[in-house]
Amino acid sequence: MSSENENNAPVTEVAQDSWGSMPKRKPVPTATAAMESEEAASGQTSLTNDKPAASSTKKTWLPSTWLPAGGLGLWFASQKRSRKFLIIGIGAGILLIALIIGLAVGLTVGKKYANPGLSELPLLINTKVDTDFSRHPNLPLPTANGGPYEGDLTYYNPALGSCGYTNTDSDMICAVSHILYDAASTGSNPNANPLCGLKIRLRRNGESVDVKIVDRCVGCAVTDLDVTEAVFKKVADLDQGRVSVEWSWLETPPVSVS
């Protein structure tokens, strides 16, 4: 046994010497290793954060309108509302203008009839005479001022008469015989004849009409009367042309009929 121990001893020493000659590495403390791992992790994170983040909600722009694709529906909705409000505004404006015009016309017409001007009033001197006397069916002929007289009744188209009045076919007027007209004259001015404006009543077939003297009839006999178509139609047909008639003065005449 002693010899075996002696033989093994040098081997053990050589092994110990070879391991002892190699440099030994110091053990890394646990805390230092943890710090290094954290620094490495933080370095990777910083590198990652340095890169620009990709946008998760990238907008797409339409080239024709430069509107975001996501807001296209909202844009069309707003345009539709704008058109609707525009149409409503135009309609309201038209109605307002029509109302203003209607009120203006109504006020003008009302003012015209409420306060007629002097130009709208009938003039009775040296102008067209308002001689539209009402038709009096079958009124008797008065006798207080002379009459009744009987003569021929004809009609003519009046214009500017001897009394200075301008009349039409629709006026209730007459022309007396030139014999009566000249007999009543008091001067050279025919417009100043006293017969001008006097009223007489003529009667035929149960109808009577009051007329005013405004003219002188050259072709009439003393008791003949020349009237307008409107007067003639009240007592006869125009086709008859000439008929007999009775008449009387409604006012005191300046001349007597013999």
TrEMBL record:
Segments of skewed composition (Polar residues): 1-10, 43-59
Transmembrane intervals: 85-109
Start and end residues of each stretch annotated as Disordered: 1-59
S-adenosyl-L-methionine as UniProt keyword: no
SUPFAM superfamilies registered for this protein in UniProt: Barwin-like endoglucanases (SSF50685)
UniProt keyword annotations, A-Z: Membrane, Signal, Transmembrane, Transmembrane helix
Keyword Signal: yes
Name of the protein: RlpA-like protein double-psi beta-barrel domain-containing protein
Origin species: Penicillium cataractarum
